[in-house]
Amino acid sequence: MRGAIALGLAFVVHAGATAMYDYKPGQFLVIDGGTSPDKKFSIVAGESKSGDFGVYLRDAQTKKLIGQLEEVATDLDSAADAYRAHWATDSKHVGVSSRADRHLTHNVIYRIENKRAYVVETPQLMCHAVPEFCGLQKGLGGPVTLDSDDYYDKPWKVRQNESYSEITKWNSATRFVISEESQWQVKERDPSATLGQYGEAEKLKDESDEPTTLYHA
């Protein structure tokens, strides 16, 4: 499977209020774009009879749950329209986007085969598009990303502030366009030359007592 890159590193905001819904036990709703083109499957969000929330692959005809999509982030939102599905035209692949927190949107791609969903591993597209920027991160000790457990406590020279990933279009059964947008803070080094056509950097005004130059990428 191949993905065409649409990558933005400039400032972007996808943050918003938490989207909640009060489900009845055993109630499931189809998420945005959740029904497959062949009408055989749907991606649904809801609560099990024991009250556990999750996102599932469901048989669209029998309404029977096939299996939970455990890789989809569900910690922030519960409303079905807060989750987005993008199906391939042949209904054999689907991407599901959801927020892990207000500044972090994950995209997970699944292959549908024998009425089961299998995760498709994908590369870190940013490092394919702007390898020099990834090299800069490595040279500064590695990035602190939003999904790091010690995000607020770990010392950093490169830190991620926003991240968004979502399939925008399937060109064929195995080729798609994906949009990835990310915001970073970089200390000491001007990242402008490493961003190429995919982003821009801004030197921030010194608003702290640190004698360190800070850039927004």
What do you see in this structure?
The protein has 217 residues and is mainly beta. The chain has one domain. It has two helices and 13 strands. The strands form two sheets. Strands 1, 6, 7, 8, 9, 10, 11, 12 and 13 form a nine-stranded mixed beta sheet that branches. A four-stranded antiparallel beta sheet has the order 2-3-4-5, with no helix packed on it. Strand 10 and strand 11 form a beta hairpin. The longest helix has 9 residues.
Q: What would the average pLDDT be, to the nearest integer?
A: 87
Strand content: 35-45%
List SSEs in N-to-C order. EEEEEEEEEHHEEEE
Work out the helix count. 2
The helix content, as a percent range, equals: under 10%
Question: Mind summarizing the main beta sheet?
Answer: 9 strands, mixed
Low-pLDDT regions: 2-14
Which of globular, elongated, flat, extended, rod-shaped describes the shape? elongated
Structural class: mainly beta
* Rg, nearest Å: 19 Å
Distance between the termini: 30 Å
Number of domains: 1
Number of strands: 13
